[in-house]
């Protein structure tokens, strides 16, 4: 437990103070038959806190893989990833896990809530390894659900929620720990226009909060990419940023 | 501690979410283990019964053989044997079998010698009447099985054929205690004169002689001396009796246990199959947990609690089932297989008697592998990147 309480196993690399999320020469290769193909090919970026960026590109361009690598959910083949000023590449698994839990919020394309559990239980899921949610965290979870229009549904099993409700619930879970970085993979892909607009507005509102996270969103949705709150649009093709 | 408690609560919640599967697995383990443990518990309890029987058995039993078959023995041989060094007492015993047509079974008629001490009151109510029969039908004490088969109660009449074929009316004076059922379920205990008439044994002769020794460990030496003094006799010592009982019970217990083994193996293999594979929903759940910041050890701890709860729950349920089936219900069905040497099977109330180490070993042999096989796939999934798990990699 002593090791877990001290997540810094590897000394952090020097990073610009203003950087919430960054990577340098990031490469992720996968095996395709007898050859290895680069899904992410030498990507470098540096994202300040409080910014909302959209990452666009055709299917198979490597957007999701880049997002997963930036969130510490996928080990890169080479290169460096920095989250909240600390390199997470090379960290031991439990240190990286803890760092991710504290600093990164992730919303998956296909929702990824645990079936059979209530919405509130799902939102509080990241707190279980910390000994369960405190009263303060529980209140924060309920406040987030209320903010996302889900207060009445907190106790409902997620199987009985609509796609939009689940997506907003997943967003509430990602924000529970007040992360420095929020990564969303196609958050409007499986919801109707009304819910998509609502999600875009919610993300835009995050910028106005205290200590706003850096928000990186992969999307095909022009409503999102062209929204006024988006600070920068990145384009990705064949594993490279254009 | 807070972390462990939170993971424990989460794991129990997971079990509840997969309630049907969890219950089916636990019941499978419980059934397999319960049946096998029932055979073990019953065999242990029956061993305790026959050991109790042996404790009151004579050190040596002397029978006379004619043409290699047991025959009546003259009671006056008693004096010669009592004079042997190391012999504490010699008691003549009068007993024999009587076929009762009404129940199509043999009963064992046993005489209470007129000069024998009173039967222990705990053994049978009404035993005093055998020594001092009143006018009217001769009194008899009945074993539990014969009384149950003939639906007899104290005060009822019982007609048994005597040695000449005439029916002799007996009066049921009482019942033998259930504690004696293992060896007296089919016994009719009567006064000596009644027994002689029923069995056709002339005065001065008995069925066998029971010898009590001052030092039981000298039994082989004294048995040899008895055989030398009484040619054409057979001397049975307690060790031989013990061997005979052991062959009866242990052999049957082994057979029954062996019959249950394939069932145990089949059910455990089914449980193994269910435990060792991760369903799609479980795999996704592990991926989600990893993605939201659970470490490998967190996932494994939760999975360990889940599998322990299911297997230990099943093991506990199985042992409780076995205990209740054997000691509360009397092991219906199974008891007949283990205890059915007599046409009139005794209705035993078995006293719990077993080796806890044996049960613990059995529980460990069942629970250990099942917990292990549940952990391996979870460990493999938890070691992967969350993305690989969620994408099915």
- The helix-strand sequence of chain B is HHEEEHEEEHEHEEHEHEEHEHHHHHH
Order of strands, widest sheet of chain A: 6-7-8-3-9-10
Distance between the amino and carboxyl termini of chain A: 44 Å
Report the largest inter-chain contact. A-B, 30 and 30 residues
Low-confidence stretches of chain A: 1-17
Strand proportion of chain A, as a percent range, falls in 25-35%
Mean pLDDT over all positions of chain B: 78
Tell how many strands the DSSP assignment of chain B holds: 13
Low-confidence stretches of chain B: 117-123
Number of strands of chain A: 10
* Tally of alpha and pi helices of chain A: 8
Oligomer: heterodimer
- The rounded Rg of chain B comes to 31 Å
Mean pLDDT of chain A: 84
Strand content of chain B: 15-25%
Report the structural category of chain B. Answer: alpha+beta
Q: Rough shape of chain A?
A: globular
From the spread of the alpha carbons, the general shape of chain B counts as elongated
User: Strand-and-helix sequence of chain A, N→C?
Assistant: HEEEHEEHEHHHEHEHEE
Helix and strand composition category of chain A: alpha/beta
List the topology elements:
The complex is a heterodimer of chains A (242) and B (393).
Chain A: H1 2-5, E1 21-32, E2 35-47, E3 52-56, H2 63-70, E4 78-83, E5 86-87, H3 93-103, E6 104-107, H4 119-124, H5 135-147, H6 163-175, E7 181-185, H7 193-206, E8 214-219, H8 222-225, E9 232-237, E10 240-241
Parallel strand pairs in A: 3-8, 3-9, 6-7, 7-8
Antiparallel strand pairs in A: 1-2, 1-4, 4-5, 9-10
Chain B: H1 2-17, H2 19-55, E1 60-66, E2 69-71, E3 73-74, H3 77-82, E4 87-93, E5 95-100, E6 105-112, H4 128-131, E7 138-142, H5 144-150, E8 157-161, E9 167-175, H6 181-184, E10 187-191, H7 192-199, E11 205-206, E12 208-213, H8 219-229, E13 233-237, H9 238-276, H10 280-291, H11 296-328, H12 334-339, H13 356-383, H14 386-390
Parallel strand pairs in B: 6-10, 7-9
Antiparallel strand pairs in B: 1-2, 1-12, 1-13, 3-11, 4-12, 5-6, 7-10, 8-9
